[in-house]
Amino acid sequence: MSTFTIFLALIVVVAFLLIVVIMVQNPKGGGLSSSFGGGGTQQLGGVKKTTDFLDKSTWTLATLLLVLILASNIAINRGSESVDSKALDLDAPTTAPAPLPTPVPSTNDAATATPDDSTGE
């Protein structure tokens, strides 16, 4: 298994976790953070701490995703060639496309034309 494949698998996992963390959040104060608060005086973990945890985990996962994407670019196997394009290859043979033959007008075209008899006259 190549290094790029490992990075690709990690990117997929981190992207999935980031989606889950973002979907759990609710900008109006609801979502998972309101279920921990419950509206009463008893709080399991506290609303403020849950919001802070979700906020920090979102930024951490987003940063990790960006770092993994940049690191995967380094791990791509580019082969042994250093030239990316044939246009940049100076040793490549240069061949010009063959010119297309130009049609020569014939003087018999006007003489062999027949009138259209589709009108019935």
From TrEMBL:
Residues 105-121 have a biased composition (Polar residues). It comes from the Bacteria. The keyword Protein transport applies. Its main location: membrane. Keywords: Cell membrane, Membrane, Protein transport, Translocation, Transmembrane, Transmembrane helix, Transport. The keyword rRNA-binding does not apply. This is Protein-export membrane protein SecG. The lineage of its organism: Bacteria, Pseudomonadati, Bacteroidota, Flavobacteriia, Flavobacteriales.
